Each structure stands twice: as C-alpha cells, then as structure tokens.
Amino acid sequence: MESQTLLDELAVDAYRSALRAGVFIDERIATELGVDRARIAEARKALQGLRLLSQGGEGPAVPLDPEVVEVELIAPLEMSVARQRRQIAGIHRQLSTLSTLYRSVEHHQGTDVSIRVLDNAADVRREIDLARRRCTKERMSLQPGGGRSAHLLQSDLVQTQELLRRGVRVRTLYQHTARSSLTTRSYVAQISEAGAEVRTSAELSERLIVYDRRTAFVPKERKGSEPPGAAVVTDPTLVAYLCRSFEAAWQVGRPFTSTEPADQQQVSAELRSSILRLMAMGLKDEVIARRLGMAARTCRRYISALMTELGATSRFQAGVLLGRQAAENSAAGGVDSVTGDVQGSGANSVTGDVPGHDPAGEELAVHK
Fold first, then answer.
1. Coil, strand, or helix at residue 125?
2. 303: CATH
3. Helix extents (H) in the chain
4. pLDDT digit string, tens, across residues 236-248
5. Can you give the residue ranges of the HTH luxR-type domain (predicted)?
6. If 30 and its partner were Cys, which of 21, 37, 317, 365 is the partner (CB 3.0–4.6 Å)?
7. Are residues 250 and 281 in the same domain?
8. Is residue 282 domain-resident?
9. pTM of the full predicted structure?
C-alpha cells in the first residue's frame, strides 16, 4: 500500500467534479473534463471500489466522506502493527531472560575471553548485528577492495541510517578506487547526507570494524571460495591499537564526497604514486591490483601509461629505471621524483601489504 497511489489524477478530478455537482454522472463529468466517457467510467469504478462513491443503484452515485474511508483502510493496518509490537515485546521478554542466563554461565565457566575466533560467517554476522544494536557512540570501519556490490550496500544502507538516527558517529574509509563505482558513490551520498563521514585512501590493510572502541571485528584469511570467519576482539589494549591504526589511516584520507579540484588531483596523484612504488618493488600486476582494490585489467592500463611516461619498453626496464631513480634520491636524502615518497620512510605501517589479503571477501563489507 505504501508504494501505491490509491487514485490517479483523473479519478481525483472526477471526484472533485462530483462533489461540486452533488452527484456522479459519467456523461456530464466526461464533458466537463474533456475525456472519453469510458475513462470516466473506470474512474467511477475506482472511486466506488474505495467507497468514495455510493454504488448508485437506480439513481446516480453520490460522493461519500473520505474520512470514513480512511478509518476503514487504516484500522486493519493499525491492528496488524499492534499485534507485531506484542510479538516483539514477547520475544524480547523471553530472550532477555535467556540472555542473562547465558552471560552468567559464560562468565562462571571463564569463557568470556578477550579474543574469540568464529569460523562460521553466519556466526560473525550475528555477532556484528549484536554489536550494532548495542552501539551507542561510534562505528569506524576500514573497507579495502574498491567498490562494494549493490546488494551489500543496499543491506547496509538501512542499518547505517538507523545508527545515524540514534546519534551514533559513523566513519568509513574506502580505497580511492571505490570512487569509480556508481553504486558505491550513490550509497556514500545517501549516508553522508544523513551525517556519516566517508573518506578514501590509496592503500588500506585489512577489513576492520570497531564499535564504541570496545569491540573489533578482524576477518580471518580466506581459504577457498567459502566466506571466512573473523576474530572478535574485546581486549582493551588490542582494540585501542586497532583504533589508533584506523585514526592514522583516517587522517591521511580524502573526503569521498569532495568536489574540490585539489582533492581530486591529490587522489589521482596518490593512486599513481602507489602504482609506481609497487612497480618499483617488483610486484606483479595482479598483486598491485589487489593492493589498490582495482581490476587487473584497469591496473594494466595504468601501468602501460606509466611505462610510456618513463620511456620503458618492458616491466623489467621500468623496474630498473624506478630502482635507479629511487637509489639516486635515497643517496641524496630527498624525495623520490617518481613516486613522491620520502626516501628511507618505508611503507606506511597502516597500509602495508597483508599476505593473503582478498578484497573480494565482503563478509565485513556490510558494516552493520
């Protein structure tokens, strides 16, 4: 009912005409509105179906009070809502008792550990749902791997908006390559309008979700095609470390929704710099693509353009040229003119490579 219009514009105009005349006469209303009589007959049937017109009988139909119709339509819906609320209250009452029992036994048995590893993806989702419902202050998340799939973002949209309505601060960090995803841009626009904060960075480490700086979710390494499990971390020292890692990455991130030319140019420069630096490290195209959250084909196009810029005819020659420039700048203690990195600084500790990282593993992409 909520996605449907009760009456079209013609039916409303016909009802208005009948109100002025006091009766609904097809031929007169068709002439007044300048439409076929058959269409007016359809409008009359629609109005009678909603009981906005009498059935007519021997005489013409007459308009009826819409407030009476409103009560008739709303009453069963209100009864259904009340019944569902009673069901929700009953479920909450019964499970609250069991939850209290579960926590007391868990604590008594000493199973309330600071790190729990869940092998089943469904168990991980349930834990994330629970953490989201309990969240009162902040959710922060790192989401590497480029753009997210439409069905995951649609699922997360409702949950993120619900967090924002409760006054929870929501911060999410994607990779720069997520900007090229239309579905991700649409999702970010909607949650940003509701108050979320979203930034991007050239490279990120693993997926990470932290609720209220108390509970963190870190995915396990993916093996095969099955969704991986995750570690649920509640140790204050470890969670604080993960929060500091997030903050370090957040500080250098660029606002996702920014339209400033300077930000756009910086994003492009950082992506280019990362590709050059990873090429200089001798990494293969597929590895570079995974690190930057882009398709291998896209990565090869970038590399081809950069090799042309370097004047290299092969990956080997490009690596030699990059290595030579890096060595020259390192000896001078300066800034690499090719990659823009300060020599001797090494890879960013937050965005360094993670063996086995798989940007396709989206079990934690639905932030919840």
1. helix
2. 1.10.10.10
3. 9-21, 26-33, 37-49, 66-108, 121-134, 150-165, 182-193, 236-252, 261-280, 285-292, 296-310, 315-332
4. 999 999 999 999 9
5. 273-322
6. 37
7. no
8. yes
9. 0.56
